[in-house]
């Protein structure tokens, strides 16, 4: 188990190292499967459709979703109607890939409309779309006149928006200049040049070349040689990220350089740096980013400035125990084969000591069948550790130096791993005062043997071992931990220090009793030795020691609570026990019933008393109407009382109040009637 | 001495009783009603003393119902008594109507409190 864990550690380390390589590889199959997932054939606009189709075209993905029917329908719709220029532009782009059936007259109408737009347009974006659309028509249909009559003037009006630092403004009334706009402008200018009916003035083209060079002066840079463009101002309404800005510039510059006759002298390392930037992004999760990345790489793959060549390593870990070969791959950015070249290992040195050169100028052998360059004989003097290998690409064809950007000397971190020999492991219990050895045991750390020891607080525990590299040098790992774990799960970790060749730790229990919280009993011992370049990193139990520590004094520090196991947080929660109020003690039922009947006694007394007094109903009105009122009055009272009983049993206060209100009105009416009748009769009696 | 005092007490009670016998019958009815209410309240208090006051609101509403209605009856008696010149102008029927209304309101509250 421990060995397995150790192996896992090494694997994890290796994985993290591979992830940290500064040189990203070219576009691979991972990109293709990601593209298939990202562009699933559903799109809301022709722009999205174009992006999907273009990515499939560049990456040569075979089993793409068939969108041509729906897309073509949309294309024809957009080309026919008087839709905005932007929609026209993307409709033409999609048409360029899908070759939909469009009537040639439609193109003629559009061309006339577009030409009018070009001369009227005031903003850069309008010009960009209309000129771009004209170029697309020119590429797709041969017999439509798309040439610009006043190409010089159009060129000038676009150029008029440029700034002194090579960036462009979106329109003449917008003072903000933008790098993204520069890309659009360059692409539009390239379009103007290809649409010009007569040659554009060379001096104008030259100034634009200068603008490009100035634009490349403002390029941003990372320490590892990655170059990219970013917008200087933030907060504009059309702010673009660095990816879309960079890809806009790449699109513009490459379009421009492909239509002019001369060459723009851009430094090769900047072009390579741009390629690094796009590749360094990895696989974007956003469709737009993905398109920008892939399209820019495709443009870099085949351009007239310089074609970047990417050096990548399938593995940056070299194992001394396996003795396999160090492989290097050189490709273009999209992963196609490079021109004939030789990879040279200029030198290699330990990453912590720059002047300790271990290898110097070696040529790698080219393996034609696999297309990789191999360092066949790994030098024997290389021990485990982290190294920096410096490669250089030498093109066989010296003329290719101008076409390809190789990036000069490329630094690659390489991890050389090997099996570390663990020897002379020894664990001993010493008497503190004399230092005499009480028990001493040898350990084979490669095996599974465990030891059983016992000690008291007056003794010491000594543990020591040695580590040796395959070349016999002393090895110092990243981690060497000695752990004591009590039965109660309280654990103490000590770092094993090294003195020259030997790793040794001496635990003086007298000084540690307080740290151990005076906990006597069995302590399990565990040893961890691990390093990124150590293939046999391990974590293994060494056995246990029975410790006898003195009783804790009064003032001793309390045992801290054990840290909560983080995994428990995701486990089931402890069950919640609800505490209910205990029901009140009720009296026996008989007692209550007795008192219920007792309550009746006064009532009976009341009735008997009434009889004794000779109460009668003689005063009850005898004539019909008052008698009826009297009866209704009593019934009304009875009804209210009944309602009260119902209120007690089931009704709520609101219903009760409403009903009481109604009954009350009735009761007041009849009560008033009967009582005033009674009053009048009694007053009549009195007066009589 | 003792015999004479007990005889005096008997005489006193007899005098009181004969004097009370002259009271109008309707006042006697009200007196009877008050006695009924007070005794009912007493029985409830005794019950509470025996078993404890757990549904305290029920006990309160029971006792207060009795006490309240007794107080209202006493008020009625004051108003109906012809010898009370203060209420000479007040018709007994009007006093009874007040009594009924007050009882209804009192018992609405009692029922609400009974729980």
TrEMBL record, chain A:
Domain Ribophorin II second: from-to ranges: 309-416
Chain ranges of the Ribophorin II N-terminal domain: 28-301
TM region positions: 591-615, 627-647, 653-675
InterPro entries referenced in this protein's UniProt entry, alphabetically: Ribophorin_II_2nd, Ribophorin_II_3rd, Ribophorin_II_C, Ribophorin_II_N, Swp1
Domain Ribophorin II third: 424-547
Major place of residence: endoplasmic reticulum
Family assignment from sequence similarity: Belongs to the SWP1 family.
Listed name of the protein: Dolichyl-diphosphooligosaccharide--protein glycosyltransferase subunit 2
Upper lineage: Eukaryota, Viridiplantae, Streptophyta, Embryophyta, Tracheophyta
From TrEMBL, chain B:
Domain of life: Eukaryota
InterPro entries: DAD/Ost2
A biological process term (GO) from this entry: protein N-linked glycosylation
Record-linked Pfam families: DAD (PF02109)
TM stretches of this protein: 32-50, 56-76, 96-114
Subcellular location: Endoplasmic reticulum membrane
Annotated metabolic or biological route of this protein: Protein modification; protein glycosylation
Keyword Transferase in record: no
This protein's UniProt keywords: Apoptosis, Endoplasmic reticulum, Membrane, Transmembrane, Transmembrane helix
GO cellular component: oligosaccharyltransferase complex
Transmembrane among keywords: yes
Membrane topology designation: Multi-pass membrane protein
Record family assignment: Belongs to the DAD/OST2 family.
Biological role: Subunit of the oligosaccharyl transferase (OST) complex that catalyzes the initial transfer of a defined glycan (Glc(3)Man(9)GlcNAc(2) in eukaryotes) from the lipid carrier dolichol-pyrophosphate to an asparagine residue within an Asn-X-Ser/Thr consensus motif in nascent polypeptide chains, the first step in protein N-glycosylation. N-glycosylation occurs cotranslationally and the complex associates with the Sec61 complex at the channel-forming translocon complex that mediates protein translocation across the endoplasmic reticulum (ER). All subunits are required for a maximal enzyme activity.
Subunit structure: Component of the oligosaccharyltransferase (OST) complex.
PANTHER family assigned: DOLICHYL-DIPHOSPHOOLIGOSACCHARIDE--PROTEIN GLYCOSYLTRANSFERASE SUBUNIT DAD1
Protein known as: Dolichyl-diphosphooligosaccharide--protein glycosyltransferase subunit DAD1
Taxonomic lineage of the native organism: Eukaryota, Viridiplantae, Streptophyta, Embryophyta, Tracheophyta
């Amino acid at each position: 188990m421990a060995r397995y864990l150790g192996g896992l550690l090494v694997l994890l380390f290796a994985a993290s190292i591979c992830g940290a390589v500064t040189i990203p590889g070219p576009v691979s199959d991972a990109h293709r499967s990601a593209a298939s997932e990202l562009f699933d054939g559903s799109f809301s606009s022709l722009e999205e459709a174009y992006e999907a189709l273009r990515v499939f075209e560049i990456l040569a993905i075979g089993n793409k979703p068939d969108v041509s029917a729906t897309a073509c329908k949309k294309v024809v719709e957009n080309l026919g109607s008087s839709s905005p220029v932007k929609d026209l532009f993307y409709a033409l782009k999609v048409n360029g890939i899908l070759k939909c059936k469009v009537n040639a007259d439609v193109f003629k109408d559009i061309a006339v409309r577009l030409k009018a737009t070009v001369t009227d347009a005031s903003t850069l974006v309008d010009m960009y779309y209309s000129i771009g659309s004209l170029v697309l028509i020119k590429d797709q249909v041969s017999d439509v006149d798309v040439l610009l009559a006043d190409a010089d003037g159009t060129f000038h009006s676009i150029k008029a928006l440029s700034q002194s630092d090579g960036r462009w403004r979106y329109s003449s009334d917008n003072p903000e200049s933008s790098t993204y706009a520069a890309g659009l402008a360059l692409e539009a200018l390239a379009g103007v040049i290809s649409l010009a009916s007569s040659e554009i003035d060379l001096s104008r083209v030259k100034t634009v070349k200068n603008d490009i060079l100035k634009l490349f002066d403002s390029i941003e840079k990372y320490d590892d040689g990655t170059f990219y463009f970013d917008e200087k101002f933030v907060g504009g309404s059309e702010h673009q990220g660095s990816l879309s800005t960079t890809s806009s510039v790449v699109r513009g510059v490459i379009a421009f350089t492909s239509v002019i006759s001369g060459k723009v002298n851009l430094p090769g390392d900047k072009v390579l740096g741009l390629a690094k930037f796009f590749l360094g992004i990895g696989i974007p999760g956003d469709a737009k980013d993905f398109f920008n990345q892939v399209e820019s790489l495709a443009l870099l793959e085949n351009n007239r400035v310089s074609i970047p060549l990417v050096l990548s390593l399938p593995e940056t870990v070299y194992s001394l125990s396996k003795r396999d070969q160090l492989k290097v791959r050189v490709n273009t950015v999209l992963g196609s084969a490079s021109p004939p070249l030789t990879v040279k290992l200029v030198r290699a040195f330990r990453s912590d000591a720059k002047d300790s050169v271990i290898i110097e100028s070696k040529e790698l052998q080219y393996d034609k069948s696999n297309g990789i360059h191999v360092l066949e004989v790994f030098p024997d003097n290389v021990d485990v550790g982290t190294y920096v290998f410096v490669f250089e690409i030498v093109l066989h064809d010296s003329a290719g130096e101008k076409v390809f950007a190789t990036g000069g000397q490329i630094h690659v971190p390489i991890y050389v791993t090997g099996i570390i020999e663990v020897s002379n492991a020894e664990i001993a219990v010493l008497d503190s005062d004399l230092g005499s050895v009480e028990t001493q045991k040898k350990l084979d750390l490669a095996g599974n043997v465990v030891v059983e020891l016992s000690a008291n607080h007056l003794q010491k525990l000594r543990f020591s071992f040695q580590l040796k590299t395959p070349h016999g040098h002393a090895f110092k790992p990243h981690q060497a931990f000695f752990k004591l774990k009590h039965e109660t799960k309280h654990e103490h970790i000590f770092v094993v220090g090294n003195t020259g060749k030997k790793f040794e730790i001496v635990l003086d229990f007298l000084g540690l009793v307080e740290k151990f919280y005076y906990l006597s009993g069995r302590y399990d011992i565990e040893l961890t030795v691990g390093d990124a370049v150590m293939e046999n990193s391990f974590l293994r139990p060494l056995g246990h020691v029975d410790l006898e520590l003195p009783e804790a004094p009064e003032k001793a520090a309390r045992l801290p609570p054990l840290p909560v196991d983080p995994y428990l947080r995701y486990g089931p929660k402890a069950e919640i026990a609800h505490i209910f109020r205990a029901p009140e003690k009720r009296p026996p039922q008989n007692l209550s019933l007795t008192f219920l009947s007792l309550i009746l006694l006064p009532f009976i007394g009341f009735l008997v008393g009434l009889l004794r007094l000779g109460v009668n109903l003689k005063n009850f009105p005898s004539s019909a109407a008052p008698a009826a009122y009297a009866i209704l009055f009593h019934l009304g009272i009875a009804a209210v009382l009944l309602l009260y009983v119902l209120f007690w049993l089931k009704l709520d206060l609101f219903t009760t109040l409403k009903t009481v209100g109604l009954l009350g009105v009735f009761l007041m009416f009849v009560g008033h009637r009967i009582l005033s009748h009674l009053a009048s009769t009694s007053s009549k009696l009195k007066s009589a | 001495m003792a015999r004479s005092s007990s005889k005096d007490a008997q005489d006193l009670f007899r005098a009181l009783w004969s004097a009370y016998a002259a009271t109008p019958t309707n006042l006697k009815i009200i007196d009877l009603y008050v006695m009924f209410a007070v005794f009912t309240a007493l029985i409830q208090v005794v019950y509470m003393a025996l078993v404890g006051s757990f549904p305290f609101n029920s006990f309160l509403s029971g006792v207060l119902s009795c006490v309240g209605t007794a107080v209202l009856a006493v008020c009625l008696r004051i108003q109906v008594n012809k010898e009370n010149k203060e209420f000479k102008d007040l018709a007994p029927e009007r006093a009874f109507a007040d009594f009924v209304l007050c009882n209804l309101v009192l018992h609405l509250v009692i029922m609400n409190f009974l729980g």
